[in-house]
Design a protein that fits this description.
globular, 3-stranded antiparallel β-sheet, alpha+beta, 5 helices, M1 Pyruvate Kinase, Domain 3
């Protein structure tokens, strides 16, 4: 499968009461970059991350959201939603982000990225959009976008192809992980044997299922 990048977005410093950082600053407001951007193991060069206790790090170095899913929200809310509005670094087109398999690898520009986990909505997101019940609505919609780890650093830019170059056979997707950890606990057992899934999520699944650590 090959899609493309609709936009590459970088966070600016936003100070607000709803910002999750103790300093009152957030990097959720991401705006399209003017040119190509270097993707490093810790994220995109020039991207501001406010609350590093919950954002950034190897397993969520890059956040991606599908332009098609953004279009659904634009219709739902009756307002324009541009690239970066979800706090995403990469806005994709013709890429099934919700259906991406945990551990599948994307060649994007000069970088190689690996799908790791879904995004969990937070109060900062709701505050940024000014939609008080956004967490509930986002959860029910279950199109959370995907975090990516960086396997090979490189430059990316709008228009670059997004090519799935490897897909694990286990078949567990971003959408399944999100639903398992939110509204459909019956899906939790499938998470236990996905080695590419970050350990904190598998540990959460073990605790909820009452399964002893391996």
């Amino acid at each position: 499968m090959t899609g493309r990048l609709a936009a590459v977005n970088l966070g600016v410093v936003t100070e607000a009461e709803w910002a999750g950082d103790a300093s009152g600053r957030s990097g959720i407001d991401k705006r399209p970059a003017g040119g190509r951007v270097v993707v490093r193991s810790g994220g995109l060069t020039g991207d501001f991350i406010g609350e590093r206790a919950h954002h950034g790090g190897p397993d969520q170095a890059v956040y991606t959201y599908a332009e098609e899913d953004a279009g659904w929200w634009a219709a739902e809310l009756g307002r324009a939603i541009g690239p970066g509005a979800f706090g995403e670094n990469l806005t994709t087109y013709a890429v099934d982000v919700t259906g991406a398999v945990i551990g599948e690898r994307w060649a994007v520009g000069g970088a190689l990225l690996e799908v790791t986990k879904p995004r969990t909505p937070c109060t900062t997101f709701a505050g940024f959009w000014g939609v008080p019940d956004l967490i509930r609505r986002f959860t029910v919609r279950a199109a959370p976008g995907a975090y990516l780890r960086v396997l090979r650093e490189g430059e990316v830019g709008a228009g670059d192809p997004v090519e799935v170059v490897d897909r694990p056979a286990h078949g567990v997707t971003i959408g399944q992980v999100f639903r398992a950890t939110t509204l459909e606990p019956g899906l939790l057992p499938a998470l236990l044997d996905v080695p590419e899934l970050p350990e904190p999520i598998r540990e959460k699944a073990r605790r909820r299922l009452g399964v002893a650590p391996a």
